[in-house]
Every structure is written in structure tokens, then in C-alpha cells.
Specification:
CATH topology: Phosphatase 2c, domain 1
CATH class: Alpha Beta
Strand content: 35-45%
CATH superfamily: PPM-type phosphatase domain
Number of helices: 2
Structural class: alpha+beta
Shape: globular
Largest sheet: 6 strands, antiparallel
Radius of gyration: 19 Å
Strand order of the largest sheet: 1-4-5-6-7-10
């Protein structure tokens, strides 16, 4: 077998634009699972047990957004079984469309508008989804988070040995309620031994 030497100037190529914040999905799903991941100085465990079946309406997704940045998205789609599972798959598809939005509140706003418009175009009954998303910077220890009507996370402060609720005032509307919703985000610095539930 003979190989021909190829010179780069032989091809008319355009350079790919640099993406300032590129996220890559490491794991996502709405099925029964227990996954452990270590990335960006963050250890994570995702435990999912759907009610009444192998798949359900709870979606969990973990993204690596750079060497030192990780994103987690949890969504709880209203309903059970096959219907809720279909909604979770749809939210997962939308996450891929907007995964490179750096701002956690901006990610929720983009997801909400696309999800709400797809609901209106489908003619199906109103579908709602609560979401919490957080982005962890392993260099600074900063954890930015935002809610779309999802129950609040708990922060275990290891050095204080107590739990704190995260996100007072960040409730927001669930995805699918109306377009044009704005969401707010907050930030907390995580220390060694801290835990978010």
C-alpha cells in the first residue's frame, strides 16, 4: 500500500471559530442510574430512581465546559412514565442547543423560550418542567446557580457542620409557563469538604 504525502495548502479550508465557552456532555439521562464523576476539582454522584418504570421525567446532565469548569442540570418534568419521559428527552435535546451559554440564568431563559414555543406549536396540553442548573469553577471554587421553580438545593458546610438552603429569592417560573421569563442567578464559594444536594 502506498501513501501520498498531502500538503495542507492543497485544501481550501476555513478555520473553525473559537468557542469562548464550549461544553461537552459527559453524561445525561432520565433512566435508573448511579453515576460517579470526578472533574474540575468536583466529585459528583448522580443517583436516579424513576417512579414506576425504567425511565421517568427526571433528567440529570453533567457537562465539562473546560479543564476547570463543570455544569450540572437537573430537570423534573411534570407527570409520570412515558409522557414525562418524552418531555425529559425534549429538554435534553434543547440542552444540546444551548449548552454553550455561560450564564446559568441565561441558559434557563433560552431553555424556557424554546420549550414554551415548542409546547405552543405542538397543540398538546401544557407541559411544565422545573430546572436547577449550576456551574462550578474548579480554579476559584465558585458555584453559580439558578432555578426555574425547582426545589432549593442544600449546601453542607463541612467546616461549620450544618446545612444551608441555597437561592433565596430565585424561585422563578417553571419552563413552559410563558416566553420572555427572566431568571436570576446567585453564587457561592465552595470549600474542601462542602457538599451540595
Amino acid at each position: 500500500m502506498k501513501f501520498k504525502n498531502v500538503e495542507p495548502q492543497q485544501f481550501d479550508c476555513t478555520r473553525t471559530a473559537m468557542r469562548p465557552f464550549g461544553c461537552m456532555e459527559l453524561w445525561a439521562g432520565n433512566e435508573r442510574a448511579h453515576r460517579s464523576l470526578i472533574l474540575a476539582g468536583l466529585e459528583s454522584d448522580v443517583i436516579a430512581v424513576p417512579s414506576g418504570g425504567d425511565k421517568g421525567g427526571d433528567l440529570s446532565a453533567v457537562f465539562s465546559c473546560s479543564d476547570n469548569t463543570a455544569r450540572v442540570v437537573l430537570a423534573d418534568c411534570v407527570g409520570h412514565g412515558y409522557t414525562a419521559s418524552g418531555v425529559a428527552r425534549h429538554v435534553h435535546q434543547l440542552l444540546h442547543k444551548f449548552q454553550d451559554i455561560r450564564d446559568t440564568a441565561g441558559l434557563l431563559a433560552a431553555l424556557n423560550d424554546a420549550f414554551t414555543l415548542s409546547n405552543e406549536q405542538s397543540g398538546d396540553p401544557l407541559r411544565l418542567t422545573t430546572v436547577v442548573t449550576g456551574t462550578f469553577d474548579g480554579t476559584s471554587g465558585e458555584f453559580n446557580f439558578a432555578y426555574a421553580a425547582h426545589p432549593r438545593m442544600l449546601l453542607w458546610r463541612g467546616h461549620e457542620r450544618r446545612f444551608l438552603e441555597l437561592g433565596e429569592g430565585l424561585e422563578g417560573f417553571p419552563l413552559g409557563y410563558s416566553t420572555g421569563e427572566t431568571y436570576s442567578q446567585q453564587s457561592v464559594r465552595l470549600n474542601h469538604g462542602d457538599l451540595i444536594l
